[in-house]
Design brief:
Elements: E1 4-8, H1 12-24, E2 28-32, H2 35-44, E3 49-53, H3 61-69, E4 76-80, H4 85-93, E5 98-101, H5 106-120, E6 129-132, E7 135-138, E8 143-146, E9 149-151, H6 155-166, E10 172-173, H7 174-182, H8 191-204, E11 211-216, E12 220-225
Parallel strand pairs: 1-2, 1-3, 3-4, 4-5
Antiparallel strand pairs: 6-7, 7-8, 8-9, 10-12, 11-12
Amino acid sequence: MGRNILVVEDDHNISDLIQMYLVKEGFDVRLAADGGKALEEFGRQVPDLILLDIMLPVMDGWAVCARIREVSKVPIIMLTAKGEVTDRIHGLEMGADDYIIKPFEMKELIARINAVLRRTEIPVDTSKRLTFDKLSIDLDSYQLVVDGKKVDTPPKELELLYHLANTPNRVYTRNQLLDEVWGFDYFGDSRTVDVHIKRLREKVENVSDQWSLKTVWGVGYKFELAGADKT
């Protein structure tokens, strides 16, 4: 049985074409023509990946993405004719894993799908949990615990914090974080990293004097340890 892809697109010509190519590549494909149907299909069976158009009847792609991100970290690739930088930033901040602009080549779409699926696969025998003083970052269960309390955190924020904390004291540029956390060629400004860091700081700042999220001016960010050991 192939990987299951949910295609949410109201243009039947486009969705039928995508379905034809994906089936040829060995994927199982389900179609939804509006945002409401997308959530129904998602509730019926969680797919391995969602291709999500933004301009949809009933409920737009932004709203669908937000609703899904409340309950799942399933990979989402946004499909849209919008090409403005602000739209791409918004998509990433909403929790999308990739963003492809229409018109696109089917070969590129399939390559993006395969790349996102590879990035989001976590081997079952690999634990992705980091523990510091008053801080636990768990990518296996996608949970953040701060000072003994579970803190609701969007998937991309948690992945960003994990990436920084997994190599403490290493300085990352914004572009490195976009490439290594979001994992695709990003053609726009890097403000989305700043936004995610700001939101993370609101959740973890001043909890412990043994670690902190630091800005390295003119360079980027790091997770700084001050004598605490990572376990």
